[in-house]
């Protein structure tokens, strides 16, 4: 019986017992820059066996939160994203743009994703 081995490091937050259980990925980092605003959207999510770390900053939404507050904001977005390991970079970018309401005039979009199977994807788009 290993049920006593799981610890809650964050109050009010119950991390998945196996990384990648909650989403198809264990790490998701996103940064979007606009011509007039660097780091207009900055998101970091990392899931480990006994903890989940998250930061979320959106200039458009006037949000800059960490830990549980960030997870409260990110959970519905990440859950609805349905990101899959077999998607193309273009499909992932389209999904990110739709999920996070990224405006078409962005200057740079950078995403670093580690999927539950360990595969890593680094996507960098400039326009």
Helical/strand content category? alpha+beta
Rounded average pLDDT? 86
Q: Tell me the helix content.
A: 10-25%
Q: Segments where pLDDT lies below 50 for 5+ residues?
A: 1-17
Oligomer: single chain
**Mind summarizing the main beta sheet?**
6 strands, antiparallel
Radius of gyration from CA coordinates: 15 Å
> Which sequence of strands runs across the widest sheet?
4-3-2-1-5-6
Number of helices: 2
Q: Which H/E pattern describes the elements?
A: EEEEHHEE
Structural description of this entry:
The structure is a single chain. The chain is of the alpha+beta class. It is 20% helix and 39% strand. The chain has two helices and six strands. It has a six-stranded antiparallel beta sheet with strand order 4-3-2-1-5-6. It is globular, with a radius of gyration of 15 Å.
């Amino acid at each position: 019986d290993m049920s006593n081995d799981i610890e809650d490091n964050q109050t009010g937050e119950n991390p998945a017992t196996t990384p990648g259980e909650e989403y198809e990925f264990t790490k998701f980092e996103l940064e979007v820059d606009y011509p007039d605003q660097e780091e207009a959207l900055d998101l970091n999510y990392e899931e480990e066996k006994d903890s989940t770390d998250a930061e979320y900053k959106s200039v458009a939404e006037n949000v800059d939160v960490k830990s549980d507050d960030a997870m409260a904001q990110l959970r519905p977005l990440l859950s609805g994203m349905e990101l899959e390991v077999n998607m193309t970079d273009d499909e992932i970018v389209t999904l990110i743009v739709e999920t996070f309401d990224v405006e078409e005039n962005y200057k740079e979009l950078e995403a670093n994703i580690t999927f539950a199977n360990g595969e890593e994807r680094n996507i960098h788009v400039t326009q």
